[in-house]
Amino acid sequence: MNIGLVLSGGGLRGVAQIGAIKALEEFGVYATHISGSSAGAIVGSLYAYGYGWQEMLQFFKKIQIFDIKKYAFGKPGFIDTEKFYSEFKTYIKKDDFSILKKSLSVTATNILNGKLKAFNSGELIKPVLASAAFPGVFSPVKIGSSYYIDGGALDNFPVKYLKSKCDIIIGVYVNGYKDITINDLKHSYSVFERAFKLKSAKEDYAKFKDCDFVVMPTQLDVYGTFEKTHIDTMFKIGYEATKKALEDNPTVQLKIKFNTIKS
Question: How far apart are CA 134 and CA 121, in angstroms?
Fold first, then answer.
């Protein structure tokens, strides 16, 4: 049986997806196919490579996003996305989709022609970096003759790449939103981030119907896209939300078990 796992973008809130994976595996659910955008592309690539939740969580704790050594010079953006390559290479030893233990698709947006591209073969690290290159903060990544940014700009919940391949599709969405006050918008970046989240969330919610099961931890709404100080809390939120959702939906468990027996 093919089990699909679609992972949304959401910045460092993507750590909650690692908690979700831990809970899914405790219930005996192991994805065979993964589709991810932005943070979901990072989590998806590490998971598809073979890392467990402990190693993935350590990766997010270790990586330094706003490092002066990574500032972009002569590129559009504050942070040079490609300077993260060496850190990813320490985790992904062979830079190629063929090394992965699970099928993986990651999305990125071609900033030149405005089209979404799904990467699932060839070099791996640059497409993952591009998928997570939040516009205005991280510089576009050159792949081939073009340049790519955050996959979430056009599809922050790329479930369509799993629909024809999987018997069951599980979604983990970490980019939800709640009502705020004007005092929550402290600077221009806050306004941009809010607008980006509203646009993607409205489009993404409509795709939930294509999943058999979706986890969307609402407690994540209070954490910013690049807020690193609450990684353990966000991981726990993802774990507990997924565990509760599975416990409250025995029909999903039965469907997985039935398809496992049938296959």
Answer: 23
pLDDT digits (tens, 9 = 90+) for 182-202: 877 776 666 767 776 777 778
**Rounded Cα–Cα distance for residues 200 and 194 (Å):** 10
User: Do 151 and 131 form a contact (C-beta atoms < 8 A)?
Assistant: yes
Tokens (6 digits) for 251:
């029909």
d(CA 208, CA 8): 11
* β-bridge mates for residue 36, sequence order: 7, 106
Q: Which two tokens stand for residue 171?
A: 């979604």
Distance separating alpha carbons of residues 9 and 248, to the nearest angstrom: 25
The first and second tokens of residue 167, run together, are 């018997």
The tens digit of pLDDT for each residue in 228-257 reads 889 999 999 999 999 999 988 776 666 666
- 53 alpha carbon, distance to own chain's centre: 14
Residue found by looking up tokens 């850190």 in the block = 87
Q: Is the pLDDT of residue 263 over 60?
A: no
Query: What is the rounded distance in angstroms from the CA atom of residue 109 to the CA atom of residue 90?
Result: 26
- For the entire predicted model, the pTM comes to 0.91
CA 194 vs CA 139, 144, 179, 199: distances in Å: 20, 32, 11, 9
Task: State how far the Cα of 152 lies from the Cα of 132, in Å rounded to an integer.
Answer: 8
Q: Are strands 141-143 and 168-172 parallel, antiparallel or unpaired?
A: unpaired
Q: How many of the other CB atoms lie within 10 Å of CB of 257?
A: 13
